[in-house]
Sequence to fold (175 residues):
Amino acid sequence: MAWIVKDSAGTEVDRRPEAYLTDALKKRFETDILVRYPTRRAALLPICHEMQHEIGYLPGQVLEEIAEFLGLSSAEVIDTVTFYEEFHLKPKGKYLIQICRSIACHLCGYKELSEKVQKKLDILPGETTEDGKYTLQELECLGACDFAPMALIDEKLHGHLDWEKLEKAIDELPD
Ligand code: FES
Fold:
């Protein structure tokens, strides 16, 4: 397998004048999250989750702000968030359709389901439809292998899927 090499050092970070990590958020994180961890570094994942919940995704500016807040380098924060698929570095669509590609779901036909969603929405995994309504993602085990093949649409798990069930779940999402 070839390594994918990107010019990360030359990446421009889009910035807005005001901070995402406001003083109020910092205060809340200090009292609600940091007190539960032995080091500031150990709180990186919950803080990233909180910020993603606040903003909907994790723009570069917020990764830098988190790094400064926790006393880490930006590179350490970026390394972490790019390792986990649940973190999004670009804005997501209104609905996030996540299809499990791990072994049980693989054996039960995830690939065909994913390809049908790709065709229906005219996007590839990792992409968002032009109208901003749907983002498709393939990800690792959802922890419900008994019900393979599985998908998670926003917060709702859908199991024992076939195309009919998955398409119905997508079509029933409100506008
Ligand atoms: S392998 Fe798909 S839910 Fe575990």
